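Figure S7 source data.
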Amino acid sequence: MPLLNYAKGHKPAADKPCASAWLLALALTGSLGLDSASAQTQTEQAAVERGRYLVQASGCNDCHTPGYPEAAGQVDERLWLTGSPLGWRGPWGTTYASNLRQVVQALDEQQWLSHARTPRRPPMPWFNLRTMSDADLTAIYHYLRHLGAAGAAMPAYVPAGQEPSGPYVQFPSAP
Ligand code: HEC
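Tokens for the predicted heme C complex:
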């Protein structure tokens, strides 16, 4: 009230421009806020799309999605990267392609970058992941988070010389 009285009583002419300046400022702040929020959503969407593309084109589904190669890639996306219980047996023991949807839940972006570049047992092509840029690996991270947690943990690694209980692919010994 006192402010209004002051404006009315002493500066009627300045009242209008002043009020419109405020409105303009409010409108600008509002729209700027919206713009940066939607820009953020767009960046996130672009990362998810890029991650999806990379996962599909670089073959992660071949091992980390159950039945993917057998079905020529025609597997519901909701099952992608939930891991496969098919064992890979060789001189290194028997390994199982992990449920990446679960693995990623415990990691932030930075942790994912070093996790993805850590040497693994065959046949995981960890050396290929090492050649991916931070931006590409981060995009895969965003895609995995976007898909969300699903499925169960895969069987634990079985050391060489021990018999795995489930099905497995036998690699020949090195010639
Ligand atoms: C030829 C099969 C194969 C392909 C292709 C493959 N992986 Fe793997 N991956 C595995 C296996 C098997 C393991 C478990 C290795 C071990 O036990 O040391 C694994 C483990 C991993 C791990 C470690 C997860 C954990 O348990 O903490 C990550 C991360 C990973 N893979 C990411 C990827 C990504 C991303 C791609 C696609 C670029 C990919 N993998 C392609 C077979 C594969």
